[in-house]
Design goal:
This protein is of the alpha+beta class. It has helices spanning 7-23, 29-36, 42-54, 71-81, 89-101, 106-121, 174-187, 193-199, 205-223, 234-238, 246-251, 253-263, 314-336, 349-352, and strands at residues 58-60, 67-69, 124-128, 131-132, 137-146, 149-156, 161-167, 229-232, 271-275, 287-296, 300-309, 353-355. The protein has three domains: 7-81, Winged helix-like DNA-binding domain superfamily/Winged helix DNA-binding domain (Arc Repressor Mutant, subunit A, Orthogonal Bundle), CATH 1.10.10.10; 89-129 and 226-355, GAF domain (Beta-Lactamase, 2-Layer Sandwich); 137-223, Heat-inducible transcription repressor hrca homolog, domain 3 (Enolase-like, domain 1, 2-Layer Sandwich), CATH 3.30.390. A hairpin with a 6-residue loop joins strand 1 and strand 2 (67-69). The protein contains 14 helices and twelve strands. Helix 1 (7-23) crosses helix 4, helix 2 (29-36) crosses helix 3 and helix 8 (193-199) runs antiparallel to helix 9.
């Protein structure tokens, strides 16, 4: 829970954070008064800096040094003081043009999104492929190969294709396999793993065997929290000693899935900001992750994110994550979803940024 601040304390905290992000140098009371032309004395500012330190928003490396933001200081800044910020028009136009120049293929869009996020932020980025929640059956083909072996080609809603070999009790002609596939395509349209399993209880042996395999494939897809990850700019993390450990999270699928799921609860909307690991991930102790869902929430969605040091330009990076997520959502709605396309989100950062406690 963030302790409330007076207007003057908020002003001073904002000055310290913005100055430290820009220069990397601690800020003292005299420098603040001179640099920002404040109409109060250095002693008054010094007292406010001390109060902000006692509340945990600022830290002092040693007695005579100036102040630097803590994780709580950054958190208060992002949640309360960041204000409205949009990428400059020419940058938005350039980014949109790059997406329009790309082929209408989701994989290329995700690679492009990761590259743009990394280049714009100068940090690392990742984009996860959108997944259906839960995974649903779309189409089935059964192809006789040799003897009792049958190739099952199953397509899930969202386009993922799975191929499995099925060994039958006895050979079955292709005509019968095609009939079974057509029948199951009608019976299982848009079915989840549980719905497919329930539908197979009243069917013949061959259809039961196929449906069991379909249910297993859907169930495994549901258990797999991240399908594909597109990363860019990892070298930017390796160059900084404080952010080097974050590479482990980006490279370990299970660990990254845990961060994403905890940072983006089901009711989360807009951009989320995880600062310093929130006391849960040691690898992110000196890092910030800015992330947002894209796509059709609770139907077919993925995540876009920027990963960098806690000392970063939050206004700019929140804006680019939000803008890329909006572009990706438009792509998913247009080409992969039957749901109506939503209205574009508001551009006010304060309404869009959520911070884990």
């Amino acid at each position: 829970m963030l302790q409330p601040l007076t207007k003057r304390q908020e002003l001073i905290l904002g000055m310290v954070v913005r100055s430290f992000i820009g220069t990397g140098s601690p800020m003292g009371s005299k420098t603040l008064v001179e640099q920002y032309g404040m109409d109060v004395s250095s002693a008054t500012v010094r007292n406010e800096l001390a109060a902000l330190g006692e509340m945990g928003y600022l830290a002092q490396l040693h007695t005579s040094a100036g102040r630097i933001p803590t994780e709580s200081g950054y958190r208060y800044f992002v949640e309360k003081l960041l204000g409205e910020f949009r990428l400059p028009l020419h940058e938005r136009q350039m980014i949109r043009h790059q997406f329009h120049q790309a082929r209408l293929e989701l994989g290329q869009w995700m690679r492009l999104a990761a590259a743009i996020l990394s280049r714009t932020s100068q940090f690392a980025s990742f984009v996860t492929a959108p997944q259906v929640h839960p995974n649903r059956f779309k189409h089935l083909q059964l192809i006789s190969t040799q003897g009792r072996l049958v190739l099952m080609i199953m397509v899930m809603v969202g386009g993922e294709v799975n191929q499995q070999m099925l060994t039958l009790a006895e050979p079955v002609p292709q005509a019968q396999l095609s009939y079974v596939a057509d029948r199951l395509n009608l019976l299982l349209a848009n079915a989840t793993a549980e719905e497919a399993e329930a539908a197979g209880r009243q069917l013949e042996a061959l259809e039961k065997d196929v449906i069991k395999l379909i249910s297993d494939v859907l169930g495994r897809a549901d258990d797999r929290s991240i399908r594909e990850i597109y990363r860019d700019g990892l070298v930017n993390l390796l160059e900084d000693a404080g952010t080097r450990q974050a590479v482990r999270i980006l490279e370990e699928r299970a660990l990254l899935a845990n961060v994403i799921s905890e940072a983006q609860p089901p009711d989360a909307v807009g951009v989320q900001v995880v600062i310093g690991g929130e006391g849960r991930w040691e690898e992110l102790r000196d890092c910030t992750i800015i992330l947002s869902r894209y796509g059709v929430v609770e139907q077919f969605s993925g995540t876009v994110a920027v990963v960098g040091p806690t000392r970063m330009a939050y206004d700019r990076n929140v804006a680019v994550v939000r803008y890329i997520a909006d572009l990706m959502s438009g792509f998913v709605y247009e080409y992969f979803s039957e749901a109506p396309k939503p209205e574009p989100p508001q551009e006010t950062v304060n309404d869009k940024v959520n911070l884990g406690e």
